[in-house]
Amino acid sequence: TAHAPHWHDGVESLPDLPLFLVANEFFDALPIRQFERRGPGWSERMVSLRDGRLAPGLGPVTAYPALAHRLADTAEGDVVETCPAAEPVAGEIGRRVAQRGGAALFVDYGGWRSLGDTFQAVKDHAPADPFAGPGETDLTAHVDFEPIAGTIAAAGAAVTALTPQGVFLERLGIAARAAILARGLSGTALAAHLAAHRRLTHPDEMGQLFKVLAAYPQGKAPPPGLDPAG
Questions:
Q1: pLDDT tens readout for residues 64-83
Q2: For the chain, what is the HEC assignment?
């Protein structure tokens, strides 16, 4: 049909046109590396084989120049996560937005500047052992938006301030919209509607854990609901 989806293996093969992109829980699915602070260096967390089963292990202490800036804000034993696959994607998106226009909206759970072990596995909507049944669980980690924003800016696009999802949706009028929809509901349908609104916006649920970041052309106004980066 005229509106059939076209699948791409990477952002590089997207049409050379203005880009209007929404990436919802995209970056959290990319593979990460984890490093434990050890004195003036780092030990990378690796996967080893123990008694015939996959198990976590630690590599030798190494300097890792790319993490030299994190020595100032970490302590012995702290864990820092990196996502090498994220920055090339973010850079290409930033380049396209800068050169061709449009905007890119990123919505994911995470924060600014990785600190702590956020690696997790989920199976059948419940936490699972990431080393048991490889290939049978959903592996994710919190997104570190700091290097993504920096890469986009380096590619020539403007970036917004990182904004909690609840704040973003409230600015777009979700409360008024939810109130209008609630007028025609009652009983269990109304309860489900109110629960869904809370889940998306409340700080104790997705409202604070999920963040929103956008890329847009330099000199233009940021997308609605978001502020320019300070």
A1: 999 999 999 999 999 999 99
A2: CCCCCCCCCCHHHCCCCCEEEEEECCHHHCCCEEEEEECCEEEEEEEEEECCEEEEEEEEEECCHHHHHHHHCCCCCCEEEECCCHHHHHHHHHHHHHHHCEEEEEEEEEECCCCCCCCEEEECCEEECCCCCCCCCEEECCEEHHHHHHHHHHCCCEEECCEEHHHHHHHCCHHHHHHHHHCCCCHHHHHHHHHHHHHHHCCCCHHHHEEEEEEECCCCCCCCCCCECC
